[in-house]
Input
Amino acid sequence: MPDAAKRTSPDPMNFDKATLLYSLPWDADWVSAVSFVGPKHLAAGNNRGEILIWDLSAPPDKTPEPPPEKNKPASNASSADKSEKPLHAALPPVRQCVGHSNVINRLLAVENRWLLSASNDHTLRYWDLAAAPGEPAKLILNARTIEDIARNKSSGRKSPPPLEVTVKTQPSARTIQGHEWIVGLSLSQDQSTLITGDDAGNVILYDRATGTEKKRWQVKGWAYAVALSPDLQQACVSERYPLVFDSGRHNAVKLWNATTGTVQHDLSKEFKDLQIAAAAYSADGKTLALGRGGEADGTGGKIFLLDPATGKKQRELTPGHLNGLTDLCFHPDGKHLATSGRDTVVRLWNLADGKLVKELGKPRGGQFKDWIHALSISPDGTRLATADMAGFVHVWQFDA
Amino acid sequence: MNGHCPGHEHLSRRALLKGALATTAGVAVANWGGLFNSQTIAAEAQKRGKRCILLWMNGGASQIDTFDMKPGRSTAGPFREIKTALPGYRICEYLPKMAQQVGKLGIIRSMRTQSPDHPDGIYHMHTCYKQSERTPHPELGAMIAKYLGQADADLPSFVRMGPTGNAGSGYLGPRYEPFSIDRNGKLPYFTSPYLPAANEERRNDLLRAIEAEHKKANGADAYESHRVAKERAWRLLRAKSLFDTSKDWPAHEALYGATDFGRGCFLARKLVAAGVPFVEVGQDNYDSHADNFVCHKANMQVLDPAWSGLLIDLERTGQLQDTLVVWMGEVGRTPTINNRAGRDHFIRGWTIVLAGGGIKGGVVYGSTDADGREVAENPVSEGDLFATIYTALGVNPREKHYVGTRPVWATPEGSKPIKALLS
Output
């Protein structure tokens, strides 16, 4: 545990005693996005465009997890085993959202009922979890592991039994067609407005309830991280264009007037050559958090706290995530920030003093070992979920 | 990714003189001029006016993300297929313009090569010989310069731009060394005379007179190589305007795309039209061990208009039938996506594309297995590829040269041209 954590003053939420509740297996492809939907449900998306829903209100099975396979070499599928042992056996998913055909980049929830998803298939989709489910479908949650073992017979690994489950499928309630990979998706504090950013440089504001477009503008590069201020007046948009040599690498971070689509503060000089992978406004609108992504050198996956009114940097949180940050979000208590990275850990930071409060998970060995792609905190702040590229969704419990 | 700009990309005074030397007829360069025996097919090939443009994908482009897609497989990645002009054949969605040019392409999906890393792969794919051999083999460009270059041309016969080869002219000697320039065609400051043209000419005449007097007085031309090289450099500088694309680039920018690489492709088209037999244009950087898909998506958006624009422009100007366009890098990329969202080097089954002069268009040759992990049919070696290229250009792939007394062939023994691709 970092020294910083020992110095942290007592909080209503005891992060120090965080417990790994579940490691939900799903190795069809990399788990790329995650979001709580209300107090009961958890949603996750993967690189294939699949979305699964788990019902966390089901009573946990306290049966311990089976021991790891003998003679099993280090691999994606085994990585989570090394980090932590979950308290409970994995829950089966209950529902599958069917419709996307490519990577799920972002998931977010609205009104404890709606799930919204942004994908490389150029669409933004709405899913109504209150809707009656459709036809059942069978899934094997460890299909990739079984396939890999079957292909690499010389590895000597024994194939595990298939984790077969039956889920109810459901189609999307609404589909909004875009032009390119929709990489950025964020929701305003009052849940009235969505903002998306895509690889064609389009930044679009939507009325969340109706899905109608309210405003759009174009940025020079590929719009990457997007966020909307609680008063709906300002949007933060980071840009990337990863050509290293031909026409020059383009990275930018700008704060835009969300009403007029004009630049308020161009932060690109201050964040020169930094690819900002995640951005979020605090609930009171006084702090904007930015995280450096890409495959940053060393611990270059830094977190920056800014004053959105001036665009001035207030604080830098260190140490940064090894090899780059992937996601960040504010805790509902308004006092903490959670970040995830390519170093396979989640960090919880105290916003008041910038100190590291808690680190969840363990680094699995540097740049060649998986990422935590995304994270989500439950509305009541008691749980945190992560999308683990190794083929898991992890759920952590904080004691109040 | 390799972020270093190699020294050979930069034009020096020495390189300028080498470029001049490369076009010099009859210059006996010490230790090289008498070593090779080369006259057989060159004259015939020269008469045909064959040319070659090599589009070099530095770092190694991914075959699965371009021309050998594996939809629905675990190796597929996030790119989707689109239809091409060739029924039943699909390529990456980020090559939409090239999809319309497939009828001009000979696509080899079954390259199985031997050198898995960058320096050895770059050498091997430029020479068709392993870097570890003691013989310094010449690059494709040097060989083409030798057999298809015009001895009395003002222009160099082997021009390259951007990140390219690392072998040079090898045993063919400095006459065929590459002439390296920027992709915008801009030549360095010292190629602009600082004297008025008339003064410059008088000065050159004075040097000629002094050297002639020296030759007369001493009965020998001790400085012949240097003198002839200077004469060639002066002639090259008179043709300097050809490299200047500032006036005609705006009219072509939409076709090729407003990028350095696109401009380099346009300059290559201009140079081959002017008689340069070999031009190589490099594109950085495909070495995507991390974030492969972002890297390839960005690179393909530069590549697609540039490459298709080049083929369209060559066709429009009546050059395509005599100009072979080669698209390749030093390696392919692994089917397996690593946990940095990257693909690593791969040599067991990857793709190279030929088009234009001597090539039958609309042909997809060879294949890989369902996941792209192995060649399924018609494996092609480096030597087979070069034999195909040389044959398409009218150069004998079994041309024999001598390094000292040792015979060395243009392609390794057993190399066979791919007949299915030759028109």
Notes: Chain A touches chain B at residues 29, 47, 76, 101-103, 120, 144, 147, 181, 199, 240-247, 294-295, 323, 342, 367-371, 389-390 (CB under 8 Å). The two ends of chain A are 20 Å apart (CA to CA). Helices of chain A lie at 3-7, 79-83, 143-151.
